[in-house]
Specification:
The chain has about 375 residues and is an all-alpha fold. About 80% of the residues lie in helices and about 0% in strands. α1 (about 1-30) runs parallel beside α5 and α3 runs antiparallel to α4. It contains 16 helices and no strands. It has helices spanning about 1-30, 35-60, 65-80, 85-115, 120-150, 160-170, 175-180, 190-220, 225-255, 255-275, 280-295, 295-305, 310-325, 330-340, 340-345, 350-360.
Amino acid sequence: MSLLVAGHAVNDLYQGAVPAVVPFLVVERSYGYVAAAGITVAATLLSSVVQPLFGVLTDRRPMPWLVPAGMTFAGVGIGLSGLSDSYLVTWLAVALSGLGVAAYHPEAARLARRVAQDSHVGMSWFAVGGNVGFALGPVLVTPVLAFGGLAWSPLLAVPALVGGVLTAVALRGVHAAATSREAVGRDDWGQFSRLTVVIVARSMVTFGLGTFLAIWVTDRVGGGPAAGAAALVVLFGAGAASTLLGGVLAGRFGRVRVLQVSYAAAVPAVAGVALVPGPAVYLMVALTAVALYVPFSLHVTLGQDYLPNRLGTAGGVTLGLAVSIGGLGSPVVGAIAGVWNLQWGLLSLVVLPIVAWVVARGLRSPVRV
């Protein structure tokens, strides 16, 4: 499990790297809002299309090699993203990274559930690994690109290359113990579909903030790119801590109840990011992170309990497809910002936690707990 948690952190580091790379693309290549949002789409579009395929394949036949391979491609894509002035080449490089992320998640989630022996606590740690990686994305990207510019982007691939090799070697020892599979209950596709809608709405908020938060906070408080990067660290760092908090709260109040309360709290928090002036915006970013990330690990365990016979598919959707589709909302935010301003673009995100809360009210605890 320690290996899978660490690997998840390395893999999702490259999802967190994308919003941190965007401001440098804006500065060095003069990208507009829509072009910047298109880079986020590059990281999510291909991932969204192929994620269900990877989930179905891993449910039929274990493919542990996808874990190190996906991680490696995720890093290589980001490493190549700064080497060409061509927008198309940059877009394709980031899309390659998204493909790697897509390949990683279903098999890694399936292995994690087996290694954790169906422990929700173990799966929470696995989810935390991904959120920690997300938080480390800006921490890795900002100093490298601030010092050397986009030409230094190949250095960003180093963690994936090292992690891919170490994971490939280490997974040989857990493969035999983690690949057995037997039917354990009835799949509830209705509840799983409802949960998927909740995750998509939540993901649109996080991707929208991830794409434009650094730009917004830099304009709001000044201080240059460092101020914007600090806001991303707050968003993803507080989010990582809140993922563990979600497991604790779920143990006391129940997973479904925690989801419902979290998304209700996210409505005023997201609005505050767009409306609160000055440095207090960092507080609103932290509150937003808590509201959006407390449910994160609960999505994974609920999804796998709704589909107990399809752990790869459930993991591919809750950690991949539904999350990746959320990135497709970023161009909408960019378009609104282009017509009016970025504040209105961010305010448009408030609709999404409302949708998540309304849909989550129809969720019920799975029979298999």
